[in-house]
Amino acid sequence: MSLTRCPDCGRQVSDRAVSCPNCGRPRAAAGMVRAVPVAGFEYRSQATLFGWPLVHVIYGASDNAPLKPARGILACGNVAIGLVAFGGIAIGGIALGGIALGPVALGGVALGLLLGAGGIATGYLALGGVALGATAMGGVALGAMTMAPARLTTRSRSGSVQLDRAGAERD
Ligand SMILES: [Zn+2]
Ligand 1 center to residue 5 CA distance, Å? Predict the structure, then answer.
């Protein structure tokens, strides 16, 4: 038995210890248990369209490519790129994800060319807590046409920007 130094708190820890008795840091290097035994999952359909698999699903991270994107007509993964993409980060024709980018984007942060819906949404039509778009609906909406309790509307005629509260219609 020998002692090693805990990388977190610096205390001497037995190399037999499963975790540091001082701060509780798991000793992943002990060789018994890997820090996170990642069971990566990947499915790639045989059928392809435009050289892309019809369906490509990746969950979990492999050691050499922690954020390998799933690419396919239908893509699902931590990072998904496809005609229809679902993922933590989704980029696609129709994108749904934590961060979604696409002509139609739905997500926590949605950046859509045509439609964006999400916590923060931008798009020609934007729906969200904070919405920015040509037509914007949300808690805070910024756009040419807005529907929101608080709105920041650009008036094309005067070119001025004014912040109104609902029910305080002017003009
Ligand atoms: Zn420690």
Answer: 8
Q: How far is the centre of ligand 1, averaged over its atoms, from the C-alpha of 29 (Å)?
A: 13
Closest CA to 28 of 42, 39, 13, 49: 13
User: Are 11 and 87 part of one and the same domain?
Assistant: no
- Domain with 69, as residue range(s), is 41-165
Residues 26 and 65 in one domain: no
Which of 2-6, 136-140, 162-166 comes out lowest in average pLDDT?
162-166
CA 24–ligand 1 middle distance (angstroms)? 6
Compute the 3-state secondary structure of the chain and give helix, strand, coil in percent, each to the nearest 5.
0, 65, 35
pLDDT at 32: 42
**80 is a domain residue:** yes
26 with 46, same domain?
no
